């Protein structure tokens, strides 16, 4: 029995592409918002790899059409602009330094008490308590940012971000 490649593409690859794209998008937004990052990071990374593999297969299968698009000035300009923008954005936001780990910094800060974390965020303890109170968040100087966040439906990184956004400039 012969397998019809066109049917496999339409009935299998297209739905898998849609699902991996959707899940990568949703988990990427969750990571960007620091919402349940520990829960979704692994699935985001590996499903993005699966999506990339499917996209590469799709590109290879449709290479002639792809090169036809690039013969048009508008398509070539859009391709070049998006590629340059991606490289520039990655260069501006990425870090290659040994030991550069923002996650470890936020974890350490989140586990710290408010009285320890506030000065690191450019605030006095009383000012930090005022910022949290104004946001409707109950806190005491000895509470960790994680504990404060849990009581308010946030995580410690979100509490640190809130405090840092209120530091004097």
TrEMBL record:
This is Flavinylation-associated cytochrome domain-containing protein. The chain crosses the membrane at residues 12-34, 46-63. Residues 12-63 form the Flavinylation-associated cytochrome domain. Pfam families: DUF4405. Keywords: Membrane, Transmembrane, Transmembrane helix. It comes from Azospirillum picis.
């Amino acid at each position: 029995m012969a397998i019809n490649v066109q049917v496999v593409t339409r009935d299998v690859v297209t739905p898998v592409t849609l699902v991996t794209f959707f899940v990568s998008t949703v988990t990427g937004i969750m990571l960007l918002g620091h919402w349940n990052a520990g829960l979704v990071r692994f699935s985001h990374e590996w499903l993005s790899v699966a999506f990339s593999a499917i996209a590469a297969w799709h590109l290879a299968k449709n290479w002639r059409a792809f090169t036809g698009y690039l013969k048009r000035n508008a398509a070539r300009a859009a391709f070049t602009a998006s590629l340059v923008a991606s490289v520039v954005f990655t260069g501006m936001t990425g870090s290659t330094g040994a030991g550069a780990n923002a996650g470890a910094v936020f974890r350490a800060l989140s586990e710290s008490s408010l009285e320890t974390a506030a000065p690191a965020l450019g605030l006095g303890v009383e000012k930090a308590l005022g910022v949290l109170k104004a946001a409707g968040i109950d806190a005491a100087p000895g509470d960790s940012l994680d504990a404060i966040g849990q009581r308010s439906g946030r995580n410690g990184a979100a509490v640190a971000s809130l405090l840092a956004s209120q530091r004097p400039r």
